[in-house]
């Protein structure tokens, strides 16, 4: 049976996991490298997963498993999108790669959908996993709602920041002639986001 009250030895680990959510999320707000931003985003989400697993409740383990699957697909899609940008611009610096919505409108749609999924917008399965975990941690200790709430807010902030920095604004003159996107890239992103849409229909 699962123990709803983890031993005292686990308290420092849970605190470190929750503190790591805030630290890595805050680092994302100051990132200039696109791939580094996505990588730190994954660390932030795994802090939630680690805390939920250590609390050892059925809801916590269900939420951890759900979020691991959901973020595995979401993070992979973000890295695939970052790679499509890099193959055409040969830079990962956010300040240099702007206004790509004008050049690749369909790819911009993928960026929007993936970033909305990353910030756990309904009805994505990411939201289901995060709600399970936040409820678990709240039942374990009420003050954790402050940290998880702030983590969720910062996640939404840097997800919008990533989308606006890469897609909006005026495109640099050095990127006027960019090769078009390929069918395989759109198929790759479809195979990432389609399961996320289907899983919410039947999470079991």
TrEMBL record:
InterPro entries: NADH_UbQ_OxRdtase (IPR003918), ND/Mrp_TM (IPR001750). It is a multi-pass membrane protein. It is found in: Mitochondrion membrane. GO terms for molecular function: NADH dehydrogenase (ubiquinone) activity; NADH dehydrogenase activity; ubiquinone binding. GO terms for biological process: ATP synthesis coupled electron transport; electron transport coupled proton transport. The chain crosses the membrane at residues 12-29, 36-55, 61-82, 94-113, 145-164. Keywords: Electron transport, Membrane, Mitochondrion, NAD, Respiratory chain, Translocase, Transmembrane, Transmembrane helix, Transport, Ubiquinone. It is an enzyme of class 7 (translocase). One of its GO terms (cellular component) is mitochondrial membrane. It holds the Pfam family Proton_antipo_M. PANTHER family: NADH-UBIQUINONE OXIDOREDUCTASE CHAIN 4. Core subunit of the mitochondrial membrane respiratory chain NADH dehydrogenase (Complex I) which catalyzes electron transfer from NADH through the respiratory chain, using ubiquinone as an electron acceptor. Essential for the catalytic activity and assembly of complex I. Belongs to the complex I subunit 4 family. This is NADH-ubiquinone oxidoreductase chain 4. It comes from Podarcis bocagei. The lineage of its organism: Eukaryota, Metazoa, Chordata, Craniata, Vertebrata.
